[in-house]
Amino acid sequence: MIVLIPAYEPTEKMLKLVAQLKEKTDYKILIVDDGSGDSFSQLFNKAEEDGCIVLHHPVNKGKGAALKTGFSYIHSNCEPDKVVCADSDGQHHVNDIIKLADAIDSNKPEMVLGVRQFEGDVPFKSRFGNSISAFTFKMATGIVLNDTQTGLRGYPYELLPWLCSVQGERFEYEQNLLLKSKKSGISIKQLPIATIYDNNNKGTHFRPINDSISVLLPILKFCSSSILSFCIDFVLLLAFNKLLGGLFFCIVFARVISSTFNYIVNKVFVFDAKDTSTKQSAPKYFGLALAILSLNYCMMKLFIEVIHMHIIPAKILTEITLFTISYTVQKLFIFKKDNDIKLTPS
User: Which residue ranges does the record assign to the Glycosyltransferase 2-like domain (predicted)?
Assistant: First the structure.
């Protein structure tokens, strides 16, 4: 078993974790210093004296980059073994690390998450950050995870090449792993762990605003694309109606142009799927657009005429539901990237 600890400007808590692991286990410990600087060299030197392998980034690159440095080193220099990732800030109890390590199945493409319960006195920025990323993950995949930002995660050795291939350099990397897992044939197991926050969790380097935006950015871009396409559709409808007349044809012409614009923007900017074949993605996209249009009519008719809902809440509920469906289908099926690694159970 190998414990991988990414560390940026750590405290004595990192050495305490190392001591507890040495006392209770025979796990190998790999620490990646993510550009902490000379003032922290004494801590890393002490960790080396205690038997840890320590790798150094010359400058701070982010947690995702540090994890990938560790995964790459393990894959190239260590005997095949299971890997547990733990944070350096004292949030993970050594007994939970051991419990998670025991739950890893070396013969199964599965990641194991140590899921915090978020009960009691939990700092606001921790609750806020996890709520944002959990919402994003559910929107993108339809899967409910209680803790998408946990740093306590376990992987079998066979997943290391995939772990190194996933994009992301900072906190968004761990979210990307979850988003990519289903499409890559990797299952997720959740284990409850203790929630430990010492001194209001001041040891964490998670930035509530910047890092939450980076995690939420795909949905923000999708919202912007949808709003801009709606504006184009609305303006063109008015213009065609004034110039040509005939409401039906004006609606069709405006919708064709705005949908084409939306397709291009989503492919190039929202989902970064420039390499995805247009011949394959375009028919799927416009098929989805027709399906969404039909569903819009059917849902509105159901809410208003059958359930007798007022038109305003009916419209809001319909649009939220169809927005979620559209985003999920486009991300997972229409604009999925061709370079994802697909793993199959051994």
Answer: 3-130
Q: What percent of the chain has pLDDT over 90?
A: 42
Asked if 137 and 143 count as a contact pair (C-beta separation under 8 A), the reply is: yes
- Co-location of 269 and 184 in the same domain: no
**Which residue segment(s) compose the domain that 114 sits in?**
2-206
Number of domains in the chain: 2
* Cβ-contact 9, 203 below 8 angstroms: no
CA atoms within 13 A on the CB side of 254: 23
Boundary (domain end) residue, out of 206, 240, 274: 206
Q: How many CB atoms lie within 10 A of CB 288?
A: 17
295 Cβ neighbours under 8 A, 6+ residues apart: 322, 325
* Ranges under pLDDT 70 in the chain: 117-134, 136-142, 195-219, 247, 337-346
Phi and psi angles of residue 88, each rounded to the nearest 5 degrees, phi first: -95, 0
Q: At which of 206, 230, 261 does a domain end?
A: 206
pLDDT at 346: 39
- Whether the CB-CB separation of 101 and 1 falls below 8 Å is answered with yes
Q: What is the pTM of this model?
A: 0.64
- For residue 66, give the amino acid letter: A
